[in-house]
Amino acid sequence: MQRDLRLDNVGRRYGLRGPWVLRAVNLAIAPGTLTRVEGANGTGKSTLLRLLAGIDAPTEGRITGRPRTAYVPERFPSALPFTAVGYLTHLGTVHGLSRASATRAAHACLERFGAAAYARTPMAQLSKGSSQKVAVAQALLAEPEFLVLDEAWTGLDEDARAELERAVAERTAVGASVVFVDHDPSRLAGVPDVICTVRDGGVNRRTEHPTSPAAGPRTVVVAQGPRGGALPAETAGLPLTTLEETTAGTYRITVPASHSDVLLRALLMSRPPWHVVAVGSEETP
Ligand SMILES: Nc1ncnc2c1ncn2[C@@H]1O[C@H](COP(=O)(O)OP(=O)(O)OP(=O)(O)O)[C@@H](O)[C@H]1O
């Protein structure tokens, strides 16, 4: 994502005389940020996400700067006349991949979320959880610059939930933005850069400070790199909780557990690679 996605004076109501669900919303989503949207039931969270994703148009106001976007809706229309892999392959070709690459990407995505066994099952026959995995896979397939997740974790098993958290971390680490709603307050706790609260038709935006002690599980990585040097550039988008040079060239780095894979990959893939000495988990207060 190269620039902010902007909502200027956006309003949305359903029907000509329906009540305004959102009104006078001004909001900017910056590249590389993770935003959590919260609010009571029926306040307009899904409405806001559909507007952000471009699935729905504002009744008034303007939305500009939307990059290549993917969306996981609250309710995924699973009764489609495709097998899971057929559907994802089709979408891959729509996104410009060759058929062979799209098929490979489709299988890889299903495998990643533990749904490889259902690749050839007609979508209408998938269980709710399996079809949710396809919903998530379709969004991640094209490596979007902007990812919008409306209760995307609901119905996923534990492994798939963790995998989706990792996928979110990967997206933001490469400069994409992610906006999500989730009923579980501990979802990615301490990680979001921004919290948006929808209330009384408005959106209140507040910036979080990932450097303050974050809630949720954290991973401690001890790694050796250049003395007094900086972390590899690939770690720039990560919400590091602490970074300490314990002895010359040895660093103790703490990240939210959901981001540990991205941190480790960045360290090991940097040129020259860092040496990872230890990885452990840290209890949080
Ligand atoms: N397609 C629609 N047609 C008419 N009214 C709608 C439509 N979609 C949403 N609404 C109304 O807009 C309001 C906000 O709904 P929305 O689903 O955006 O809220 P939400 O905060 O996501 O709710 P929840 O937490 O229950 O998922 C509700 O009053 C809802 O009935």
Molecular structure report:
The protein is globular and about 65 Å long. The two termini are 35 Å apart. With 285 residues, it is of the alpha/beta class. Helix content is 26%, strand content 29%. The protein has six helices and 13 strands. The chain has a domain at 218-282. Adenosine-5'-triphosphate is lined by residues 14, 21, 39, 41-47.
SSE inventory with pairings:
Blueprint: E1 5-13, E2 20-29, E3 34-38, H1 45-53, E4 60-64, E5 69-72, H2 84-94, H3 99-112, H4 128-140, E6 146-150, H5 158-173, E7 177-181, E8 194-199, E9 202-207, E10 218-224, E11 242-247, E12 250-256, H6 260-269, E13 275-282
Parallel strand pairs: 3-7, 3-8, 5-6, 6-7
Antiparallel strand pairs: 1-2, 1-4, 8-9, 10-12, 10-13, 11-12
Helix pairs in contact: 2-3, 2-4
Adenosine-5'-triphosphate binds next to helix 1.
Q: What structural class should be given to the helix and strand makeup?
A: alpha/beta
What molecules are bound to this protein?
adenosine-5'-triphosphate
Bulk shape:
globular
* Number of helical elements: 6
Cα-to-Cα separation, first versus last residue: 35 Å
Output the radius of gyration. Answer: 20 Å
Taking all residues together, what is the mean pLDDT? 90
Order of neighbouring strands in the sheet with most strands:
5-6-7-3-8-9
Q: In terms of per-residue confidence, which ranges show pLDDT below 50 for 5 or more consecutive residues?
A: none
Helix content: 25-40%
The helix/strand series, from N terminus to C terminus, equals EEEHEEHHHEHEEEEEEHE
Binned strand content: 25-35%
Protein name: ATP-binding cassette domain-containing protein
Organism: Streptomyces cupreus
GO molecular function: ATP binding; ATP hydrolysis activity
Keywords: ATP-binding, Nucleotide-binding, Transport
